């Protein structure tokens, strides 16, 4: 006879109250799970790690820290005027991503470079340089040497 179905709710150190409440609501709706365990990061049971295939290193909340007051920013990179420029996209959503353009998404410790499938070669070649120049120009408290650029 198989064991009882188990559900785990892991509350990472960097999670906020809204994320934790959402996890708790999800746990309530897992009717197929006869047993449930809830714990904070660092208080995991051995059974939890076994269910995941064993404990290994993972990104900690200090590496993924949320900076109070920092809102991610998205910038469009274009050469439509004959030279490369970046312009912030206010109140952006995924629908703002146009296949013929390049965008930067500033998430503080990481700047993502999103390259549309139909982006012009000049924009593609200048995308990483635009990200590097953007990082150098921002006026905030981040250590610019620690910001990584990830191409998507």
Tell me the fraction of residues in β-strands, as a range. Answer: 15-25%
Overall 3D form: elongated
- How confident overall, as mean pLDDT? 86
- Computed Rg: 21 Å
Number of helices in the DSSP assignment: 3
The CATH topology name of the largest domain reads: Severin
Helix fraction bin: 10-25%
Q: How many β-strands, per DSSP? A: 7
Structural class of the helix and strand makeup?
alpha/beta
Summarize the biggest pleated sheet: 5 strands, mixed
Write the layout of secondary structure elements.
Blueprint: E1 6-11, H1 17-28, E2 35-40, H2 46-51, E3 73-78, E4 85-88, E5 102-106, E6 110-115, H3 121-137, E7 148-151
Parallel strand pairs: 1-2, 6-7
Antiparallel strand pairs: 3-4, 3-5, 5-6
Brief synopsis:
This protein is an alpha/beta fold. The protein is 23% helix and 24% strand.
Explain the overall architecture.
The chain is of the alpha/beta class. It folds into two domains: 6-51, no CATH class; 73-151, Severin. 23% of the residues lie in helices and 24% in strands. It is built from three helices and seven strands; from the N terminus they run βαβαββββαβ. It has helices spanning 17-28, 46-51, 121-137, and strands at residues 6-11, 35-40, 73-78, 85-88, 102-106, 110-115, 148-151. The strands form two sheets. A five-stranded mixed β-sheet has the order 4-3-5-6-7, with helices on one face. Helix 3 (121-137) links the parallel strand 6 (110-115) and strand 7. The longest helix is centred in the last third of the chain and has 17 residues, at 121-137. The relative contact order is 0.12. The mean pLDDT is 86.
């Amino acid at each position: 006879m198989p064991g009882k179905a188990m559900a785990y709710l892991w509350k990472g150190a960097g999670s906020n109250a809204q994320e934790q409440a959402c996890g708790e609501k999800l746990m309530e709706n897992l009717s197929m799970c006869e047993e449930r365990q809830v714990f904070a990061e660092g208080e995991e049971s051995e059974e939890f790690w076994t269910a995941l295939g064993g404990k290994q290193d993972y990104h900690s909340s200090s590496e993924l820290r949320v900076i109070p007051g920092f809102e991610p920013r998205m910038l469009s990179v274009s050469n439509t005027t004959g030279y490369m420029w970046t312009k912030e996209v206010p109140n952006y959503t995924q629908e703002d991503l146009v296949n013929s353009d390049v965008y930067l998404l500033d998430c503080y410790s990481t700047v993502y470079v999103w390259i549309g499938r139909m982006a012009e070669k000049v924009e593609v070649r200048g995308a990483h340089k635009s990200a590097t120049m953007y990082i150098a120009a921002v006026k905030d408290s981040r250590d610019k040497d620690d910001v990584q650029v990830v191409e998507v």
